[in-house]
Write a structure and sequence with these properties.
Elements (H helix, E strand, L loop, with lengths): L6 H22 L42 E6 L9 H10 L4 E4 L10 H8 L10 E2 L13 H7 L11 E5 L2 E5 L15 H12 L4 E5 L17 H9 L4 E4 L5 E4 L14 E5 L16 E5 L4 E7 L3 E8 L7 E6 L2
Parallel strand pairs: 1-2, 2-3, 5-6, 6-7, 7-9
Antiparallel strand pairs: 1-11, 4-5, 8-9, 8-10, 11-12, 12-13
Helix pairs in contact: 1-2, 3-4, 5-6
Length: 332
């Protein structure tokens, strides 16, 4: 499973990596960290470009955003494969972006084994492990009890029998949830995770909250919408949460604020599908209502600025990709 390079080919990859690292640093205004060699390539055979709504009407963008000190949260899902160098390209972006990193599941393909975490994830996103809030995906659970995932991330991933946890990031409450529901006793109303979420929202009230899990309730991508997390969404929505971030579909999609039935609601949740960490790209199905921006050509990360009273986001593509997206809003 280990990536190999040697001879002239290895030399060319190193030269290309150095050039990419310099280009990423120039675009980000930061210098490369020098934490390790950076290798990058975009897999061939990507589907035709699909980008929508260059100037979407988004209720969130008209909301004021506070100008006081912010914290940064950056990441993506569907990340590392030893058959792709897309994860190296997105890891190079992280090198130039300070703050807290998150994953949105499917961290190491194909089965989330300990060897795949060591050989495929660790050489790229692994250098940011100490600042990462991880979330598990279905491929991580293809190893029994997601043992490779929990073994790699340790206490940062929460109780291995649960896989959910919460933390404060500046003024925000961040929820890392587990949408592999069958493995943890369900996700429906009254399930252990939903009860814990409801109790934590009550015990830790915040003006601003964001949640991350793998399977999206709404998606126009190849996998489509997944209703298993509907109760988690409804619990967050009732508490006034702002943002839900998912992966699973290997594409980028942003929805306007909406309720748990997908009905536009200025007080609802903004959902992003960010399965762009480097694994591969998927096609789109017919767009769902309230889908404001979509792309399936660019690997990249979403970068949040989290303010005490609001938020902004930017999709940051890897070098050579052109798709970008941005939005902002005030906390409820």
């Amino acid at each position: 499973m280990t990536r190999h390079s040697g001879g002239a080919v290895g030399g060319q990859r190193v030269l290309a990596a150095v050039a990419l690292a310099l280009l990423v640093a120039a675009c980000s205004g930061a210098q490369p960290t020098g934490d390790g060699p950076a290798r990058t390539a975009v897999p061939s055979g990507s589907p035709p470009p699909v980008t929508l709504d260059p100037s979407p009407t988004d209720a969130a963008t008209s909301s004021p955003v506070a100008t006081s000190e912010s914290t940064v949260l950056v990441g993506a899902g569907d990340i590392a494969s030893c058959d792709s160098l897309g994860d190296e390209a997105t890891a190079n972006l992280l090198d130039g972006i300070p703050g807290t990193v998150f994953t949105a599941g499917d961290n190491a393909y194909d089965r989330g084994t300990a060897a795949e975490f060591a050989d495929c994830y660790d050489p790229s996103w692994g250098r940011h492990r100490d600042r990462t809030l991880p979330v598990a995906g279905n491929h991580d659970y293809m190893t029994a009890d997601a043992a490779g995932y929990f073994g790699y991330f340790g206490a940062a991933a929460g109780d291995p029998s649960q896989g959910w946890y919460a933390t404060d990031l500046g003024a925000w409450r961040i929820y890392a949830l587990n949408s592999n529901c069958a493995a943890i006793g369900g996700c429906e109303a009254g399930s252990p995770q939903e009860r814990w979420l409801r109790e934590d929202l009550t015990a830790n009230p915040r003006a601003c909250a964001l949640a991350i899990w793998h399977h999206p309730l709404f998606s126009s991508g190849d996998h489509g919408s997944d209703e298993r997390t509907a109760a988690l969404w409804q619990t967050l929505d009732a508490a006034g949460a702002e943002i839900v971030v998912n992966g699973h579909d290997h594409s980028y999609e942003r929805f306007g604020p909406q309720d748990g039935d997908g009905v536009p609601d200025p007080a609802g949740i903004v959902e992003l599908v960010v399965g762009t960490g480097g694994g591969s790209h998927y096609d789109f199905n017919a767009p769902l209502a309230n889908s404001l921006a979509r792309d399936n050509t660019a690997f990249g990360v979403v970068r949040f600025e989290l303010y005490p009273e609001g938020w902004s986001l930017d999709f940051v593509p890897i070098a050579g990709a052109s798709f970008t997206d941005s939005a902002s809003g005030a906390c409820h």
